[in-house]
Amino acid sequence: MLGMMIAFFKDLWKFRVEVKKQGTWMQKYIKKNNYALNPDLMMTTNLKVWISEMQATFGQRFCPCFEPSDDKELNKKMMCPCEYVEDEIKEYGTCHCALFGRADLDKAGWKASSKRLMAEYQIPLNLKDGVLDTRGQVLDHRRNLPVPDAMHQLKSTLNNYKGKSLKMIVSTEQEVKNLEDIAKYRKYGFSSKVNDDSFEVNLQLKN
Ligand code: SF4
């Protein structure tokens, strides 16, 4: 928990300029659409940091809850605020990431949506002896993308992982490309190879 708090403040400092900019467009956006921002300040700040990190890693303002896909049209739809907001607000009261929601959503409604999101991402990881097999996750029914995806499984692993290197098994070439971008951004060593039924990525986390 302490480690996560330290990481949060480090990231907040690193992205302080971008976080402020995210806040500016978000305020305009909710006003125009009669939505609200998640009243949980920690959650909203984290989402602003994660959107800033997506922008720094992949070059565009991708949704913080999904890594880029190999479908250019889908990627366009996933820029925050994404094309699914209205539909998801109708279904859950908030967007998938619980960032934007109905203006009249009460505290319990926001809490329920944040809980739904956490339940989707905090799954037991298939991690054994330094190998993280990311395959076989359920697909989000709108985007047809895994939840949690390889990127989020990596992030969850790194919260507690002490090893110097990590091997990841992924299903698609796009996931390999995304992990390469993450490695470049985070200055990790990176190599990959093609297996019979999967792709293997090796990350050198520390020297
Ligand atoms: S789900 Fe929410 S946070 Fe994610 S892109 Fe859509 S609007 Fe942005």
From TrEMBL:
Its EC number is 1.8.7.2. The keyword S-adenosyl-L-methionine does not apply. The keyword Lipid metabolism does not apply. Gene3D superfamilies: Ferredoxin thioredoxin reductase catalytic beta subunit (3.90.460.10). One of its GO terms (molecular function) is ferredoxin-thioredoxin reductase activity. Its cofactor is [4Fe-4S] cluster. Catalytic subunit of the ferredoxin-thioredoxin reductase (FTR), which catalyzes the two-electron reduction of thioredoxins by the electrons provided by reduced ferredoxin. This is ferredoxin:thioredoxin reductase. It comes from hydrothermal vent metagenome. The lineage of its organism: unclassified sequences, metagenomes, ecological metagenomes.
